[in-house]
Amino acid sequence: MLDAAVEGFARYGYRSASMDDIAEAAGVSKPLVYQYLKSKDDLFTACIRRESAALVAAVRAGTEDADGLLPADRRLWNGLCAFFAHTAAHPHGWAVVHQQARTEGESFAREAAAVRAEIAELVTGLLGVAARDAGCADDALAEREVSGLAHALVGAAESLADWANAPRQEPPSARETAATLMNFCWAGMENLLKGSRWTPAP
Amino acid sequence: MLDAAVEGFARYGYRSASMDDIAEAAGVSKPLVYQYLKSKDDLFTACIRRESAALVAAVRAGTEDADGLLPADRRLWNGLCAFFAHTAAHPHGWAVVHQQARTEGESFAREAAAVRAEIAELVTGLLGVAARDAGCADDALAEREVSGLAHALVGAAESLADWANAPRQEPPSARETAATLMNFCWAGMENLLKGSRWTPAP
Amino acid sequence: MLDAAVEGFARYGYRSASMDDIAEAAGVSKPLVYQYLKSKDDLFTACIRRESAALVAAVRAGTEDADGLLPADRRLWNGLCAFFAHTAAHPHGWAVVHQQARTEGESFAREAAAVRAEIAELVTGLLGVAARDAGCADDALAEREVSGLAHALVGAAESLADWANAPRQEPPSARETAATLMNFCWAGMENLLKGSRWTPAP
Amino acid sequence: MLDAAVEGFARYGYRSASMDDIAEAAGVSKPLVYQYLKSKDDLFTACIRRESAALVAAVRAGTEDADGLLPADRRLWNGLCAFFAHTAAHPHGWAVVHQQARTEGESFAREAAAVRAEIAELVTGLLGVAARDAGCADDALAEREVSGLAHALVGAAESLADWANAPRQEPPSARETAATLMNFCWAGMENLLKGSRWTPAP
DNA sequence: GATGAATGAGCCTTCATTCAT
DNA sequence: CATGAATGAAGGCTCATTCAT
């Protein structure tokens, strides 16, 4: 039943998707929907939660390093691959979390922001690992700057997910997309960890 | 009058913002709104157009290089400064273009996509300049990869705009945010132009 | 200006014809309309009155017999010719009086009923003349029956007016239509004046 | 529920009758009306159809002659009795079909015209029977003239229906009204079938 | 005097939500 | 338990009507 709701919300938005249509698409009757979830609000929240959890779980699984053997960039790349693979496989869920949840009221937006924060924290953690591996001082980067970098990375990834999912003859694979993003950002990350910064030409 | 509409749409979304509320917020009566713009659709489109144009104009002005003296990275940084300054100064307009327009119907989404494409093209142009300045072969980067990089950059910028606008004690200045983003991405760009790539560790 | 109003009301009905459209069709601005006639109600009433008066005048002129020389049937025929000629020449006015005025509220309907009554009275008068000419007793026909006959004649005439105005290759002339109606009704009238009645076969 | 709609439309016209009022008069809520009939248009059409069908059925039943024993004038009289009885019993339905349907838009007018045509055809058929019974040649009357006579009869009947329904101390019975109409028209019909015509006095 | 600009009121329609079955 | 039937509340849009210019 949530599947139908997710598809409906993704396709038409929270307001434009009607409970009638969702119930019909789910093949059940409207009062049944209200028995499981008290209101449209709750239904939407449930959708967001389910899709968020699935996405975060996929990315987390991708970045995992059970044996402690992988370098940070490899783990980041794995996580990105998982991210792009998941968003490609679940476009409706991705649309709900990434687009719809952010546009309809504070409370939903908070849910979406939490996802972002969670993924950003994953990235932050990996940067910390990279820093340790590179032997940097813990305070080479200000906390705020790390936060900014993480958000930049997340945003770039989100944008590339949409770009990769756009209809095309040969859509790029998750690994290609992830490689593009690593090329885009990793050199800068390494530079920063080494203390080398870009500054505007004089 | 558009101001009120932009604020309403930004705050509540296209569907949830009611014409009554918009008119009241504008200090006029509903029929007057309909005299200027024939329908809610048209009103929303007008909002998108106005805010899009303002944003694109700001960024374009930032990247301009009348005397042909500036290096590409400086121009990009200027553009980013302009972008972050504009989104910080017009958060509602930014929300309309970046969030609302993309979630309610194909036709609005096309308007929003056009903005993205326009900015991505600006960035692409700057990459071309950078490539020329660095004496690279024209085909050092595949067209698709350039497109991906541009979208990654735009996405990172969008994400940082939201991040920078989030309520905080000392919000970062546009220049700080732009510097963070340059640090994030410019090293990778330069590497790519030099033919150096990131590849997953074996 | 009334012309435009009559056409508008005839074409779209009292409610559906908008003051904007009428004013535009008349080539003047709306406030000017309100200066001449205080409200839409008054405008409609004015239309009804003008068209009614024209129609009644035409028919009355037709039935007139200045020299007292014409027999009643001839005068009736003349009146019918005038009637069909007028309705054919002023279809919009006819539509306003005959159709629109009767469908929108009591007060307008009364105006329309007055026209009917006036014409019915004309007919009644002619029947009286015919009776006198035929040497009948004044009370050969009950008053109520005369009224019924007059309304039947008026209704038949109204119906034939619509029938004659319907789009056709060779629309019948007013004289043909009038002849059809005389054939239809005059024999019965004469019979009645002579005291001969139709009765259901046993 | 249609009853309330018919009454509302009859009293105020299609445009002026509001769905709120109709729903309230029906003792139900507005959305319920929309569950049964998709729009005001459809509701009005349904009213027209129902009332038309009832009227036509009543008249057709009246003119029927199962055993083939009745003369044409008797059948016509029976039909007229049925007609006047029905219009007297269902004044609102009669108003909808006869007045309102003809004044609001082509599509409704077509429905009303179809009813008229159907009744006119009934009458035409009876004239044919009368002609056969009287031993007339089939072409004694031109087709157009027959059509005109039928419309005249229908119009006279419609007019008398309104006349008979007008508020009065002793309203005439359907049989009286039908007799008045037969007196009005049948002698002329017979004359025409015999080839005798009214012509304007020289 | 004539008009562009403005509005209060109302109508058709829809939707999230709940009972009675 | 699951559902068809029903509704209160609102939203987009239009129109007759009036001022300030």
Instruction: Give the name of the CATH superfamily of one domain in chain A.
Output: Tetracycline Repressor, domain 2
Mean pLDDT of chain A: 91
As for the CATH topology of one domain in chain A, it is Tetracycline Repressor, domain 2
Biggest interface goes to: A-B, 54 and 55 residues
Reading the helices and strands of chain A in chain order gives HHHHHHHHH
Q: How many separate helices of chain A?
A: 9
- The CATH architecture designation of one domain in chain A is Orthogonal Bundle
Estimate the global geometry of chain A from the Cα principal axes.
elongated
Strand residues, percent of chain A:
under 5%
Helix content of chain A: over 70%
- How many DSSP-defined strands of chain A? 0
Rounded to an integer in angstroms, the radius of gyration calculated over CA atoms of chain A is 19 Å
| Quaternary organization | homotetramer
What's the CATH C level of one domain in chain A?
Mainly Alpha
